[in-house]
Design a protein that fits this description.
The structure holds two protein chains of two kinds.
Chain A (H helix, E strand, L loop, with lengths): L17 E4 L4 E4 L4 E6 L2 E2 L7 E2 L2 H8 L1
Antiparallel strand pairs in A: 1-2, 2-3, 3-4, 3-5
Chain B lengths: L1 H7 L10 H6 L1 H5 L6 E5 L5 H6 L5 E6 L2 H14 L4 E5 L12 E7 L8 H11 E12 L3 H14 L8 H10 L2 E12 L4 H9 L4 H12 L3 H6 L3 E2 L7 E2 L1 E11 L5
Parallel strand pairs in B: 1-2, 1-4, 2-3, 4-5
Antiparallel strand pairs in B: 5-9, 6-9, 7-8
Helix pairs in contact in B: 7-10, 9-10
Classes of the chains: A alpha+beta, B alpha/beta.
């Protein structure tokens, strides 16, 4: 995935900025507490297919 | 999400009808600039995006169907096109910031949207003021729609079919000003059996027979308006044309 995209993409529901988790290939949104998967280099920007972030993950992001 | 599930099954061959013709003069109609950033909503296998790639700076193509996007991505690599980014997404919740795009295009896709008004509002949001929105869609007269909806419902129960005036009103209400329109035809091009197989699979004959029957029972006025012709060989040719409209509009500036 083109990392320049990260400056552009926002969460489709909250329009909040996204954090790129390179290791897990996910785009994380703090405001919606969702993780959007990147599959084969293509981000899946569907709230219905996003994973909810756990409390621990949220804490990590807020650190 | 139900309607999305049906869109995902959308047979890829069904969207390739006379595409060369449809795409060849798109740039002339939209008049993009080399510096433009463009969003293609419902990009499918990227046909429109590829046709415009040389005319703009960057294209973002979104679609609900990951299989299409995988093919589009592969095709982009083969064609050596490096300025298109594909993402899985839907128009009613766009993953882009406000006032971001110079151009948004949405070709033969809005009939799949479950929330068209929300989608148009999102498109308006992500466009820069004065940015262009090109929408192409099949348009029906009231009468033909009332009949064709029955056929369409058998294959895609979540579709909504529009009249031209409905599209115009929706665009106006969503904050667009129409600057140019042109009609075109979209021709079904393959044998009815093949066409039905793409929707219902090869073995599943009951719904296919029902569909054939429903088409043949259509009011004569519908068949005439859609220029329906039945080739002597039913495997080869049942041909009909969808009347389409390509509408170019701009995002109106917000009142001060």
């Amino acid at each position: 995935m083109n990392e320049n995209l990260l400056d552009i993409l926002v969460c489709p529901t909250t329009k909040g900025s996204l954090i790129y988790d390179k290791e897990n290939q996910e785009l994380l949104c703090k405001s919606s507490k969702l993780a959007y998967p990147i599959r084969d280099g293509i981000p899946t920007m569907l709230p219905d297919e996003a994973r909810s972030l756990s409390l621990e993950e949220m804490e990590k992001l807020n650190r | 999400m139900e309607e999305l599930k049906t869109s995902i099954k959308y047979p890829e061959l069904a969207i390739q009808a006379n595409k060369e013709e449809m795409l060849s003069n798109m740039a002339e109609f939209i008049q993009p600039r080399k510096t433009d950033v463009l969003l293609d909503i419902g990009t499918a296998m990227g046909d429109a995006a590829f046709a415009l790639a040389d005319h703009v700076k960057t294209i973002h193509g979104i679609d609900i169907n990951p299989k299409y996007l995988a093919k589009a991505q592969k095709m982009a690599t083969e064609k050596g096109i490096g300025n298109i980014e594909f993402k899985i997404g839907t128009a009613d919740g766009l993953e882009f910031p406000d006032d971001f795009f110079d151009i948004v295009i949405c070709r033969l896709a809005i009939h799949h949207f479950s929330e068209p008004v929300k989608a148009l509002s999102e498109i308006n949001r992500v466009l820069k003021p004065g940015g262009k929105f090109e929408i192409s869609e099949v348009v029906y007269s009231d009468f033909v729609r009332s009949q064709w909806s029955i056929i369409n419902h058998l294959k895609e129960p979540y579709d909504r079919l529009y009249t031209y005036l409905e599209l115009v009103h929706m665009l106006n209400r969503a904050g667009f000003e129409i600057i140019s329109i042109r009609p075109f035809n979209y021709k079904t091009y393959r044998g009815v059996t093949k066409w039905l197989n793409t929707w219902f699979g090869e073995g599943n004959n009951e719904p296919k027979e029902r569909m054939k029957d429903a088409i043949l029972k259509l009011d004569k006025r519908v068949l005439e308006e859609m220029r329906f012709t039945k080739d002597p060989d039913p495997e080869q040719g049942w041909v009909w044309y969808y009347n389409c409209m390509e509408i170019l509009s701009v995002k109106k500036a917000k009142p001060a």
